[in-house]
Q: What sequence folds into this?
C-alpha cells in the first residue's frame, strides 16, 4: 500500500464524460479540504449558507403544509443567485464551475430543510446533470439556460405497477 501520495501514479486528466470516472485509472490527486478552497469557492459557501439561513429555514412550515409554490419560489431565487447553474457551462447560461464548488453549494442548501434539499437535488442532480452529461446539443440549448436560471424546473417522475 502506498504510504504517501508521491508513491501513487499520477492521475491522468480526462474530460468528464458521465460515469467515465468509474472506468478511468486512479492515481494521486489533490484532496479537498476547506483550507484549500479558493476565494470563489468561499464566496459560494457564504452565498449558499446565507441563502439557506435567510430564505429556506423561515419557510419550513410552509413545506409541511405542501406549499409547493414556496419551493418553486425558492428555486427561482436560487437560480437568480447562480446556485442552480454551477454545473452548467457558460455557453448555456450557467457558471461552468468545478465539482468542489458544486458540492459546497449542495451541502449548504441541504442544511436548511429536507424538503428543499430534495427539491434542489432533484432539479440539479436528477434533472439537469443528465442533460449536461448526455444531452444532445439541441437539448442543451433548449433546456439548460432555463434550468440554470430557475425559469424551468427539472423533476423526476416515477410510476410503479
A:
Amino acid at each position: 500500500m502506498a504510504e504517501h501520495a508521491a508513491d501513487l501514479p499520477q492521475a491522468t486528466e480526462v474530460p468528464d464524460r458521465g460515469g467515465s470516472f468509474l472506468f478511468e485509472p486512479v492515481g494521486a490527486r489533490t484532496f479537498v479540504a476547506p483550507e484549500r478552497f479558493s476565494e470563489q469557492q468561499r464566496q459560494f459557501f457564504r452565498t449558499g449558507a446565507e441563502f439557506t439561513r435567510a430564505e429556506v429555514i423561515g419557510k419550513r412550515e410552509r413545506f409541511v403544509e405542501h406549499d409547493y409554490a414556496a419551493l418553486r419560489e425558492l428555486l427561482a431565487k436560487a437560480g437568480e443567485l447562480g446556485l442552480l447553474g454551477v454545473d452548467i457551462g457558460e455557453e448555456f447560461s450557467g457558471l461552468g464551475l468545478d465539482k468542489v464548488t458544486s458540492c459546497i453549494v449542495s451541502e449548504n442548501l441541504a442544511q436548511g430543510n429536507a424538503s428543499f434539499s430534495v427539491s434542489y437535488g432533484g432539479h440539479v442532480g436528477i434533472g439537469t446533470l443528465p442533460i449536461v452529461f448526455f444531452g444532445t446539443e439541441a437539448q442543451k440549448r433548449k433546456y439548460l439556460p432555463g434550468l440554470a436560471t430557475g425559469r424551468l424546473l427539472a423533476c423526476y417522475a416515477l410510476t410503479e405497477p
About this structure: The CA atoms of residues 13 and 138 lie 28 Å apart. The longest helix spans residues 114-134. Confidence is low (pLDDT under 50) at residues 1-5.
